[in-house]
Design a protein that fits this description.
The protein is an all-beta fold and 688 residues long. Helices cover 3% and strands 57% of the residues. The strands form five sheets. It has a 25-stranded mixed sheet that branches.
């Protein structure tokens, strides 16, 4: 599913974008698993195409979301960032948005995280982003929405080699090759290498003054002192992929694919402002190295004539380590998922198009915490879990006439979980019995189309998110607090109301507007539970309610064959309504920006191409009571506006050189970590 290549150019004229009826004529599949024009779908969905990815010159796929309203993925520390939090529709957890490749969910089974850098950008045909609850089709984990990455088909011999170098020793080298062996059988291969020497992201901080230190403040206004830094955060990543496709006939085909991704991050020698001998005395000079490795396997069978589809997959995240030098521990969290999703497209009548299917998955997690002095002690197991899920679903689109459509969806999920956990300073592992729950996710949407190029809709739906195995069965130490698993957690739920309008104007411009109101109950909420075995402890509880109100505006315009532009704006007012502490009531949900504004303009002719981008993100908060109001300090989430530019030259139909500069005006701000500032990159690409 992850292999592919850039298409080769057969003539110089292919460099020029083809003038078209723009974006709303695109066929999308994510909304209902029924092929449909985007203008005909009664929901908020946006598409990033392969052409967009090429123009944006993104290194990691999440960078392409600048073209889409309503989704925010913070990259806190440049190319070496491991964060996978997604903010969409007022929720911010990794497990709240389903991320898929060709229908295979790639959120890990431990806490729902996604390694965005593992997805080779050049093989992607398009990315469909469905905003708003989608459990009626996709079940748990689609409470905020769905990101579906669709790869290019294998239909001809083509390949690409790309070499890039940039600031901080950044390297990004890629190779892709598609081989059409004959009319029935084709294969593809890919390899990608990403590496950077990094930059200083973390200061070393002391609560007390030391001669030579620099006076500073916390994000809550308390005075502290910078006594140095932890060194440059470095990154090394490798990805390998292979895919094979066999066509039984014009209607039936089967694809088998495998991806291997592995990365590690670490820090260079720390720097002290107060004398090198102090480094040995302060654990704050040292930071956590780590690594992750995973294999993704899938089998995808399609029978377009009879409407049958089957997706079988196995996600094996066999290595995930986070080392705490100051606590002399190493945590390992291997986890796996095996799943099957089988569905059929059919017609109940001449006015109905339907899809029905069944889904099964089994997740497994084993979390361990070792003392570094006793790395192979098997008695240090921290927690383990086994989850099973079964679901059946159906969706139907009924055409009353050319103007009115009704979309009905219904899904039943049964979820089962069992596990065990080792509490801090305990020697006995506590086994928890199996528990299960049932959930029904309905959805209904009505669309009115006054003409072929516009449509308005109103929708209602319910969705849920099962608690991750990390929150239920894994305990960890962070920032002086032990976070303890809570096996009694229930799913959090949402009811969503939405109205929207989308239209194509004069065949040149697309505009889309959606307004939503979401009510969240049984919100998973981290609560301080006091002292446990002499330590300050917290755990997640179903202790909250929240509301999110907002709107999303999207505009795309093509001036002519060579120049196009876009802008989008997101307003989301997501606030806690019921909580553990009174000080947190009516506060903004953490890590969710209230305002996001983005715009860009692209030029492309037979010789030159260029893209200029701008992005504004408003203040975010890291604490539930929104007390972290001080900006421009380590740990703060500052509002920021940055601009990026790339300029390139086509030497011929095969060879291209691009020069890019990010954060043109070198804006300084903190996104918890200190960002990179202005960076440069040169990219040479050859297609064959």
């Amino acid at each position: 599913i992850f292999t592919g290549s850039l298409p080769s150019m057969s003539s110089a004229e292919e460099v020029i974008p083809v003038e078209k009826e723009f974006m709303l004529d695109e066929i999308v599949v994510t909304s209902s698993r029924i092929d449909n024009k985007k203008v005909d779908m009664p929901n908020s969905i946006s598409v990033v195409t392969a052409e967009d990815l090429k123009n944006l010159k993104v290194k990691n796929l999440d960078e392409a979301f600048i073209k889409i309203p309503g989704i925010y993925v913070p990259r806190l520390s440049g190319i070496g960032s491991t964060t996978s939090q997604i903010a969409m529709r007022g929720v911010n957890a990794a497990n709240s948005t389903a991320v898929m490749v060709n229908g295979q969910k790639i959120n890990d089974s431990y806490n729902g995280s996604v390694t965005w850098s593992s997805i080779p950008v050049d093989l992607v045909e398009r990315v469909e982003v469905l905003r708003g609850p989608a459990s009626s089709i996709y079940g748990s984990g689609a409470m905020g929405g769905v990101v579906n990455i669709i790869t290019k088909d294998l239909n001809k011999n083509t390949g690409s080699v790309s070499i890039s170098y940039g600031t901080h020793g950044m390297q990004n080298h890629r190779f892709f090759y598609n081989a059409a062996i004959n009319d029935r059988f084709s294969m593809a291969f890919n390899y990608e290498k990403k590496k950077t020497k990094g930059y200083v992201t973390d200061p070393a901080i002391s609560k007390t003054y030391i001669a030579g230190s620099v006076e500073n403040y916390t994000n809550k206004g308390k005075k502290n002192y910078i006594i140095g830094n932890k060194g440059k955060r470095q990154w090394d990543e490798n990805s390998y992929g292979i895919r094979a496709k066999y066509k039984f006939d014009d209607a039936k085909s089967m694809e088998i694919s495998a991806l291997k991704n592995e990365y590690e991050y670490y820090y260079s020698q720390p720097t002290s402002y107060v004398g090198h001998d102090v480094v040995k005395k302060y654990g704050t000079y040292f930071s956590t190295p780590g690594e992750k490795a995973m294999n993704l396997y899938s089998l995808n069978y399609k029978d377009t004539k009879n409407g049958w589809n089957a997706i079988l997959g196995y996600n094996d995240q066999y290595k995930q380590h986070d080392t705490s030098i100051s606590k002399a521990t190493d945590s390992s969290k291997p986890n796996t998922r095996v799943f099957a999703d089988i569905y059929k497209n059919f017609s109940l009548s001449s006015k109905d198009r339907s899809v029905a299917g069944i889904y099964f998955s089994r997740d497994k997690m084993d979390a361990q915490v070792y003392k570094l002095s006793n790395r192979f002690d098997s008695d240090t197991k921290n927690g383990s879990a086994r989850n099973k899920s079964f679901a059946a679903y159906i969706n139907n689109i009924h055409d009353f006439n050319d103007r009115w459509k009704l979309n009905l969806g219904l899904r039943y999920d049964r979820w089962n979980s069992e596990g065990k956990i080792l509490l801090p300073k305990k020697t006995d592992i506590i086994h928890y019995p199996s528990k299960s729950f049932d959930y029904v996710s309905p959805s209904i949407a009505l669309e009115y189309k006054p003409n072929e190029t516009s449509g308005a809709y109103i929708s209602w739906g319910k969705a849920f998110e099962a608690p991750s195995m990390y929150r239920m069965y894994s305990s960890s130490y962070s920032s002086g607090i032990y976070n303890i698993g809570n096996p009694d957690l229930k799913p959090q739920k949402v009811t969503n109301y939405e109205i929207g309008y989308k239209a194509t104007l004069n065949g040149k411009s697309d505009v889309a507007l959606s307004v939503f109101h979401a009510e969240y109950t049984d919100l998973l909420y981290k609560n301080n539970i006091g002292m446990v075995d002499g330590m300050n402890a917290s755990r997640y509880e179903n202790a909250g309610k929240a509301e999110a109100n907002g709107y999303e505006l999207e505009l795309n315009h093509r001036f002519n064959q060579n120049m196009s532009a876009f802008l989008n704006y997101t307003y989301q007012n997501s606030r806690i309504k019921e909580c553990v502490k009174d000080s947190e009531k009516n506060k903004l949900v953490t890590a969710v920006p209230k305002h996001i504004f983005r715009s860009g303009i692209t030029y492309n002719d037979t010789k030159w191409h260029s893209t200029l981008l701008g992005e504004y993100v408003s203040k975010r908060f890291g604490s539930a009571d929104n007390s972290d109001v001080v900006n421009e300090v380590h740990g703060s989430y500052d509002p920021y506006f940055i601009m990026n530019l790339n300029i390139g030259y086509h030497f011929n139909k095969n060879c291209d050189l691009t020069f890019a500069v990010n954060n043109i005006f070198d804006r300084g701000y903190f996104n918890y970590y200190n960002p990179e500032g202005r960076t440069f990159e040169a990219v040479l690409t050859y297609n064959f």
